[in-house]
Amino acid sequence: MNLIVFIGLIVLGYLAGSAAEKNHYRSIEKRESEMADLPIVTISKLPQNMDATNSRLVNGSVVISIDYFKRILAQLINIVGGKVISYESLVDRARREAILRLKEESRGYDYIINLRIETSTIGNAANSKNGVGSVEVLAYGTAVKVAGNETGL
Amino acid sequence: MYLVNTESIPGKEIVEMYGVVSGSTVRAKHVGKDIMAGLKNIVGGELRGYTELLQESRQEAMDRMVQQAKSMGANGVVNIRFATSSVAQGASELYVYGTAVLVK
After folding, report:
1. DSSP 3-state assignment of A24?
2. Per the CB < 8 Å rule, is B41 touching A68?
3. Which of A17, A29, A42, B18 has CB 3.0 to 4.6 Å from B44, enough for a Cys bridge?
């Protein structure tokens, strides 16, 4: 009985999880190309030839969870070691989503400078058996509006 | 209130520095949201409840920091940094700190 539930959860996790991931990646790529005209940089000062007229702290964050199948897969990989691909895609999705939300909040500004990205697990460790296998990514920076021409950089 | 995470405020001049200001909140997970999160753990995907919860808490921490800066007589906070740490099982602390300054 337990085995049936276990296998059921794995199958459900695999089907729903990979469908959700595919959809998410599609939406991320679509929005990334829509908002490609707002450059984000990690330097903290604008180049000398630019005059900022307005600036504001902006942030974007997302909490995202891994599915059951991938968690089991990660646990198996944990035994033998090696690349944990299932978590790689999780943090990748979370970071890109957080940056997109940051960009959405900065509409109307020309650049986002001094980007910082923080990643943390909530409560329990992400890879513990009974833990919430989820990560939070926070992206923050300073949105600036530049006077005059916007070319350069 | 000028809030930036850069060392200076673009286009403005800092005339005085008051020192470090900070704000923090510790939030525990919500029982109802935790059940939803448990379900989401099977199928994967975004945990909206947690995203909102953390965003709200972070805003509260920011408000506390701004309050502290105002009481010092500052009109801006520069070099703001966020930090998140889990202090206990199921509770996380959101901490934000920066330098209170007077901007002209």
Report:
1. helix
2. yes
3. A17
Contacts of B9 (CB under 8 A, 6+ apart): A55, B2, B76, B78, B101, B103
Which tokens hold the place of A107? Answer: 């509409």
ipTM of the prediction = 0.84
Residue among A89, A101, A102 nearest A135 (CA): A89
Residue A153 lies in a domain: no
**Structural domains of chain B, count:** 1
- Give the distance from residue A9's alpha carbon to the nearest chain B alpha carbon, in angstroms: 7
Residue A152 within any structural domain of the chain: no
pTM for the model stands at: 0.85
Q: Tell me which chain B residues have a C-beta less than 8 angstroms from the C-beta of A70.
A: 44
Please count the structural domains in chain A: 1
Domain CATH code at residue A8: 3.30.110.70
Q: What is the DSSP letter of B90?
A: T
Alpha helices in chain A (DSSP H): 2-34, 68-80, 85-105
pLDDT tens-digit readout, A39-73: 999 988 888 777 888 889 999 999 888 888 888 88
Distance CA B41, CA A121 (A): 14
